[in-house]
């Protein structure tokens, strides 16, 4: 089968940073689905895994952690899906990725694709949606149904115009939270306002001076260490901070001590990586989000589509994500 892989970890402009390859078509066993991939999305995790390093793969490594497609075979223990089902998922960082014609994925982390969305729009959602959902409704324990109570709560999203921010704004507003999002350009400001942000501030300027109040929750989607001191200043006593961005330097937790602030990481691959007992929660939440799309409560975050899925377009998508100027999500669809 066709796939886009790498053997060396190179700068994206290098002609061998990605290669068009032929690899064996996998066979599903256990709870695995074999999915015919129709579209994939590129996320910052793709670029971080591909980042230059002194390592050479004997066999092509297939990246990709966002996909939509059609189930073509199922393992002998599969109970929730059947051949012909249209699905979307983010997969596991410990397994071969979605940049291939066919991919194996555990049914417990797969959702039914919203029928109101095409494959490209659906592929833009899983990784960012799982991240945002887990951060808001599990790490912060915000109750989606407690809208009246949540109206008294204020959430700051640092980096609102990216993939995670774009869906997090919408989910937070669905839950009734007051949302302030950060954006630094006219086009990103317009984007987060369109998605429902109540207020927009610039993350390149003083957050404290712009907010002029403390917030209950902070979801940090950009440069944890850069915003660390500011987050400590603007979080309410007994508030909660969640970050998805690893820090290249040690963080001083003493900044949060006097306010008894909770700090928690969100890493959406934790469940599939460690095969946790609640791994199927990702199937549940993807299906919940699918229903919300069907009911018209959410809007797609796809902003750019490339085609077909091949080394050239995957490289182009990686370059755009690495630029740091992405709004929403970029998707590559269809094999030739």
Automatic annotation (TrEMBL):
It comes from Alkalicoccobacillus porphyridii. Keywords: Metal-binding, Oxidoreductase, Zinc. The lineage of its organism: Bacteria, Bacillati, Bacillota, Bacilli, Bacillales. Belongs to the zinc-containing alcohol dehydrogenase family. Quinone oxidoreductase subfamily. PANTHER family: ALCOHOL DEHYDROGENASE RELATED, RETICULON-4-INTERACTING PROTEIN 1, MITOCHONDRIAL. Pfam families: ADH_N, ADH_zinc_N_2. This is Zinc-type alcohol dehydrogenase-like protein. InterPro entries: ADH-like_N, ADH_Zn_typ-1, ER, GroES-like_sf, NAD(P)-bd_dom_sf, YIM1/Zinc_Alcohol_DH_Fams. Residues 14-332 form the Enoyl reductase (ER) domain. Gene3D superfamilies: Medium-chain alcohol dehydrogenases, catalytic domain, NAD(P)-binding Rossmann-like Domain. One of its GO terms (molecular function) is zinc ion binding.
